[in-house]
Design goal:
By secondary structure, the chain is mainly beta. It has helices spanning about 65-70, 120-125, 145-155, 175-180, and strands at about 5-10, 10-15, 20-25, 35-40, 55-65, 70, 75, 75-80, 80-90, 100-105, 110-115, 135-140, 160-165, 195.
Length: about 200
Amino acid sequence: MGKLFYQGHGSYRIVSDQGIVIYVDPFAGEGYDLPANIVLITHEHPDHNNLALLHQNKNCTILRPETILINGIYGNVTIDAIAIQAVPAYNSGHDKNKCVGYIIEVDGIKIYASGDTSTTDYMKDVLSKEQLDYALLPIDGFYNMDPAEASACAAIIGAVHTIPIHMKPGALFDRKLAETFVAEGRLILEPNEEIEL
């Protein structure tokens, strides 16, 4: 079974059955001890792209909006049997042309890494049909949607499990806020908590 390790804020690590290590938006917390095979940056705000935390394997691939969102086209790539599709992510503080989310398919498990976003048409038009196993959604209500809007998005997307992330600005985690997020199959992960996918 693959594993997902929540580091806090918007940062997490995914490890496949084959030991392929993927970091999403490295910035917060601990758990950067495994050398990276793939790094996914959703946008270039400093709380999402601290590559200095990572040890990179020799052939590490770093994906960021400028490499996977070209002329308005959301790209996709398969690396070490991990399929990655860039998807829209935006709101008033996050430019649609400079931010992405990702659908990551690991060992047959589909994970939606939303990045910083609010409600998008793509959630209803495409994600709702993707049969996602996990969705990770921001709920801070300051840079992104609040728990109520994120709960509505979770209902639209319909992932088997939805994990609230990116909570209080400047904090790794806020359990009180996380518990106001409502979704069928909700999972609340604390920093340094790991689950099997």
